[in-house]
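Hi L.,

As promised, HAT C-terminal dimerisation domain-containing protein:
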Amino acid sequence: MQALYKKRELENGGEDKTSELDKYEDEANEDFVENFDILMWWKVNSLRFPTFSKMARDVSAIPVSTVALKLAFSIGGRVLDQYRSSLTPKIVQALVCTQDWIRKSSSQEDTKKIEEQIQELDMIENGIFIVLF
């Protein structure tokens, strides 16, 4: 039986080389439905798209806060009111870290350092070495 399977596989050009992404992109678009349930769609199609369904599950599990980051932590102070205190400590930590990363990544000093490092890497790749004594 296994020999027949291998023979058939060779006749058909080997294994199916179509990736899950290709299959997903080739799918026809769903018709518009007023109350479309995306979670149910992924549940139904999880056998056809196992990797994407797991990714969709993980992304859908991320809690969404209705409190805007700028509103929650305005420059006016870090006073927690009833609305802000409804956030879990983990979400507050994520918001604060994200705000810090955004501020840090936009500093001109860091941008300058990154540009210098890119230039150094370009020189190294092109065979231009700077020897410091």
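Residues 67-133 form one domain.

Thanks again for sending the construct details.

K.
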